Automatic annotation (TrEMBL):
Matching InterPro entries: Mitochondrial_18_kDa_protein
Gene Ontology annotations of biological process type: mitochondrial fission
Protein name in UniProt: Mitochondrial fission process protein 1
UniProt cross-references to Pfam families, sorted A to Z: MTP18
Amino acid sequence: MADPFTVAPLRILGYGYATGVALRFRFCQDLKDACFVVATTFIVCHATYRSLSNEGPVYISVLDTLVFEGLASAAIPPLTTYFICSTTRNWLKQKDGVPKPVYKWLPVTLGLSVLPFLYSTLDICVNKFLDQTLRPLYMP
């Protein structure tokens, strides 16, 4: 059976960090914090699920899930979103006559719009990276 935490729509909850980073440019800190709570809860639930459903040692399942999610949910997507939002915002600052709604909403819109295209490709890349680097160190 496939891991339900690695397919949409559940997988998208892991992108709460990236969503929070994008929304921080436009909304209050509380909304960003709520997105971070969703992502953290997703990661803990995924690690718990993997520890209960795998045949091998529990600590290896938890470690593997935390390393995977650390890269695929907590590091790469938020950095990508931050880069897109801040680059767009800086580019718009340099332009004269940009309407205020465009300046406010375009960075957030671009940052959020990239996330649906990111998750499946990113998960494959992170799995390949871990298969070739770290997993041989701790997987039997």
